[in-house]
C-alpha cells in the first residue's frame, strides 16, 4: 500500500501568505473595500465589497501568478513560463512575467474574447490561440512546456499561487477587523484556499463561504467523496469559476478550512452583476458577482459583518450586454411578449396606447403579418418592454388581456 503521507499535497501556511504579501508590496494594489447599503439592508447586517475587480489586470490572479514566477530559480526563469487561460490568469501571468523580466507564452482558446486576447498581448505575453475549449488549450500549453522546458504556471494548483491569493485575506482582516463572514467564488479553489489559510490562522471564528455556479459545481460532490471529482461538461456564463475539477492542493485546504460551499443559478449571477453595476457602480464579471448572487439568494444565511469578494472585472462587452438583459428579466424589469391582434389599420397604434397606459417602456417591436400560423385577418407582434418589477409585469399582462389581446409570453 502507498504511504498516504508521501502523496499528500504540500501545505500552505500563514507564514507563506505573509511572505507573499511582502513580495507583492508595490506590485499588487491594496484594493478598496466599499460598503453596500442595499445588501446591508437585505442581510440585516453590514455588507462590504472587496473590490478586487480594480486590481491590476482586472482580477486577483496577478497576486498568485507573481508569487509563483518570482519563486522560480534563475535557470527556470531563463527557460520562460507558459500558461493556459481564457482570460484572467492569462493577463496575470503576462504582467507578472513582464515585471520580473521573464519570457511568457500564453495559450488561449480560439474563441477567447478579443479584448482579453489584446490585453494579454499588451501585458507582454506571446499569445497562441489553440483549441475550441480550455481543456484543449491546457493540453497544448503542457505539451509546449514539455517540449521547450518552459515552466507551466498553473492557475490554482500550486502552493505559491495559493499563498499569493491568500494576501487578499490579510487585507480583508486589516480593512474590516470586525468581519464575521467572508464570501468568494470558487472555481479550482486557489482563491478560497488562500483566503481560508490566512483568515483562519488569525481569526478561526470567521466563517468562510465559497460560491459555485450550479452548472459547474465540482466542489460539493468532491467534498462528499473526499477527493476531487470531475464534473462533465460544466456550463455557466461565469468563466472565472467554470472549472470541471478541483485542484489537488486547494481541495485539501478547502475541505479543512472552508465552512460551506453553496451554489447559485444563472439568474442569480445575472441579478448579482446587475446589482453591482447599478447600486455599487462596480463593473464585475459573472464570477466576480457570484458572492453577491449568493447574498441575494439566501440573505438570511450570512452573519454580518459580511465581506463579499468581487474577484474580477474582465467582462466581455458582448457578454455584459446579454447578461444585463438576462439580469433585468430575472429582476422582472424586462419583459418579452408575443401577441395576436387583428391585422387592420391602427391596430398596432392601439396596442402601443394600451402599453403606454400602464407606463411600460417599449424597447422594440416586431410585426409579422404573413405566416402560415396566422389567420387571414391576424397579425403577430413581439414586443420587448422595460418594466419596473414583477408586480408591474403582472399589471402589464393583465391590462393587455383585459383589452382582449391573446398574450403568449
From TrEMBL:
EC number(s) given by UniProt: 4.3.1.19
Organism: Streptomyces albidoflavus
Top EC class of this enzyme: lyase
Cited NCBIfam families: ilvA_1Cterm
Cell membrane keyword on record: no
Entries under InterPro entries matching the protein: ACT_dom (IPR002912), ACT_ThrD-II-like (IPR044561), Ser/Thr_Dehydratase (IPR050147), Ser/Thr_deHydtase_PyrdxlP-BS (IPR000634), Thr_deHydtase_catblc (IPR005789), TrpB-like_PALP (IPR001926), TrpB-like_PALP_sf (IPR036052)
Cofactor dependence: pyridoxal 5'-phosphate
GO terms for biological process, alphabetical: isoleucine biosynthetic process; L-serine catabolic process; L-threonine catabolic process
Keyword annotations from UniProtKB, A to Z: Allosteric enzyme, Lyase, Pyridoxal phosphate
Full protein name: L-threonine dehydratase catabolic TdcB
ACT domain ranges (all copies): 336-409
Subunit and partners: In the native structure, TdcB is in a dimeric form, whereas in the TdcB-AMP complex, it exists in a tetrameric form (dimer of dimers).
CDD domains in alphabetical order: ACT_ThrD-II-like, Thr-dehyd
Stored PANTHER family: L-THREONINE DEHYDRATASE CATABOLIC TDCB (PTHR48078:SF6), THREONINE DEHYDRATASE, MITOCHONDRIAL-RELATED (PTHR48078)
GO molecular function: L-serine ammonia-lyase activity; pyridoxal phosphate binding; threonine deaminase activity
UniProt pathway annotation: Amino-acid degradation; L-threonine degradation via propanoate pathway; propanoate from L-threonine: step 1/4
Pfam families with a match to the protein in the record: PALP
Keyword Transport listed: no
Record family assignment: Belongs to the serine/threonine dehydratase family.
PROSITE patterns: ACT, DEHYDRATASE_SER_THR
